[in-house]
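Weekly puzzle thread! Below is a chain. First person to post its structure in token form gets bragging rights.
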Amino acid sequence: MGRKIDKRAVIVDGREMIAVSPADFNRLDASRRQVGARVARTVRVHQQLRDAQTRLAQIQAMLNASEPTECVCDRVAAVLGDNSARDSSDPAQPSRKRRRIRSRRRR
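Winning reply:
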């Protein structure tokens, strides 16, 4: 954490307000933007989690309704919306690699 913000109470047009230096205001403004970005990322991850839970429920229902000898690979792939049911041993089809997400924070 940075240094403590130096604030002064002032009265403007009969209303009490807090005055801060331009440097402190810039720090507070940067913090506000960072919090907003984190909230946006959290909302996006929460939506992705809900989508994954919905897909899992669909797959569970599909597996419960299928016969033990029935292959549901294509139907599961359709629910997932990708080609995960393809034969991974086929060298003609490229493998899908997950993109690695790196943190911006330096250690």
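Puzzle host: Confirmed. Bonus trivia for everyone else. The beta strands are 7-12, 15-20.
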